Automatic annotation (TrEMBL):
Keyword line: Heme biosynthesis, Iron, Membrane, Metal-binding, Oxidoreductase, Transmembrane, Transmembrane helix
UniProt topology in membrane: Multi-pass membrane protein
Protein name: COX15 protein
Oxidoreductase among keywords: yes
Length: 238
């Protein structure tokens, strides 16, 4: 209000306040959904020793995620006397908050599916090992693409260019490496951040398509084939 929105009304403030409040309450509910059942099943002796370690790690990650969220929001409330721009959170902390959320979600899903569904005992052929490596590499690329999206959001980089596939009238914009040192552009130059996100997005869709086409050449269980096909569908929709 002091820096930018001098004409904000109380109902308008309440709207953004309740968005933040709901997000915090939802996060705390997630924490309880982890910790309370974990304590119950632990006390009942339902957890094996390896699963205990995984449950502790997941509960710790939930708490760490909440701490990161507070640390991120704090950066948006700090006074920046050298900046007259729109108040916003640090793009580095936003990326860390999103990244930890993705790790938490993926680990939870992996743990749940490993308990609910029996593991397929497939012959370790060269093609299957290569498919597994491709899948892991594609996962890493998608994760990196999502993190680059956090930098786009943190810097409002999506507002710089709104044309595709070109950025404005050029394939490679003039201000791509405007900052010094050069490495700073990757994390702080809105043009470079948007450019990198586009390249990573295209690379992710290409990698998912290649993974799907390669999987068609290998005899796979129905569940695995459905997973790869769903991955391609979601990538195209995204």
């Amino acid at each position: 209000f002091n820096s930018l929105n001098h004409d904000m009304t109380l109902p308008e403030f309440k709207f953004i306040w309740y968005m933040e409040y709901s997000h915090r309450m939802w996060g705390r509910a997630v924490g309880l959904a982890y910790i309370l059942p974990a304590a119950y099943f632990w006390r009942r002796g339902c957890l094996s020793r390896p699963l205990k370690g995984r449950v502790l790690a997941l509960c710790g990650l939930v708490c760490f995620q909440g701490l990161l969220g507070w640390y991120m929001v704090k950066s948006g409330l700090e006074e920046k006397p050298d900046s007259y721009d729109i108040p916003r959170v640090s793009q580095y902390r936003l990326a860390a908050h999103l990244g930890s959320a993705l790790v938490l979600y993926s680990a939870s899903l992996w743990t749940g599916l490993s308990l609910l569904l029996p593991r397929h005992k497939l012959p370790e052929t060269k093609q299957l090992l290569r498919l597994r490596r491709y899948a892991h590499g594609t996962t890493a690329l998608i994760f990196l693409t999502a993190l680059s999206g956090a930098f786009v959001a943190g810097l409002d980089a999506g507002l710089v260019y709104n044309s595709f596939p070109k950025m404005g009238e050029r394939w490679i914009p003039d201000d791509l490496l405007a900052f010094t040192p050069v490495l700073r552009n990757i994390f702080e130059n809105p043009t470079t951040v948007q450019f990198d996100h586009r390249i990573l997005g295209i690379a992710s869709v290409t990698a998912v398509t290649a993974l799907y086409l390669f999987s068609r050449k290998i005899p796979l269980p129905r569940r695995t084939r459905m997973a790869v096909t769903s991955l391609l569908a979601v990538a195209c929709m995204q």
